[in-house]
């Protein structure tokens, strides 16, 4: 895999780590895959603080998605940049058609651990080139999650993706996390993704930057809810708050919800 694709092992490790500790996220599939792959992460990418953040971020996405699915029983779910994530298991595909999308080499790896079904499909595709949407027959309502993806796309590429999704679906809900421009600048030298060879990332300061003619910003969500912080204890909780839930962290990471107008 190339550098960007290798970044999938960072959240995989984080989710496996917290799951094994029995906090934040229950993810036995992440444990299984991590133990089998044994990808040689190093440095900050294997930090327990980052692992806590990755587990918390995924839990926040899971909660939002589960709520949207409950509100839209006929919607399809699309997870863009799915990596090895087991959200399809954690949230469940029993009542919704679900599509996991990622680069062809990632999907090849993913198929070693996940099996398709009537409700669950994997699509090889690039978020910057939306030809993969032709594999999705449904056109009414889609709930889309992009976790840890937007920072690898330019603003124009994100807008093109938004346009393509809005053109394909009558109704659309989207949750996406992003770096700020400050975080993008810092990431060239001080980001765990550097450990797998990635230095080129992008950020935004205004959520309207990802809007297109038909897609509108709805609201910003908290990245680190207090209930997950409370699962840590003592000094660990104090340090985690300073690193990922304090005022400085808000200058780095944002979480935005969008909806088709």
Helical residue percent band: 25-40%
CATH architectural label: 3-Layer(aba) Sandwich
What does the average pLDDT come to? 92
Q: How many individual domains?
A: 1
The amount of beta strand, in percent, is 15-25%
Helix and strand pattern: HHHHEHEHEEHEHEHHE
Radius of gyration: 17 Å
Distance between the termini: 38 Å
CATH homologous superfamily annotation: Vaccinia Virus protein VP39
- Decide which structural class fits the backbone: alpha/beta
CATH class: Alpha Beta
Strand order of the largest sheet: 3-2-1-4-5-7-6
Tally of extended strands?
Answer: 7
Written description of the protein model:
The protein is an alpha/beta fold and about 260 residues long. It has one domain: Vaccinia Virus protein VP39 (Rossmann fold), CATH 3.40.50.150. Helix content is about 40%, strand content about 15%. It contains 10 helices and 7 strands. The chain has helices at about 5, 10-20, 30-35, 50-70, 85-90, 105-110, 155-170, 180-185, 225-230, 235-245, and strands spanning about 75-80, 95-100, 120-125, 140-145, 170-180, 215-220, 255-260. A 7-stranded mixed β-sheet has the order 3-2-1-4-5-7-6. Helix 5 (about 85-90) links the parallel strand 1 (about 75-80) and strand 2. Helix 2 (about 10-20) packs across helix 3 (about 30-35) and helix 2 packs across helix 4. The longest helix is centred in the N-terminal third of the chain and has 24 residues, at about 50-70. It is globular.
List keywords for this structure.
38% helix, Rossmann fold, 7 strands, alpha/beta
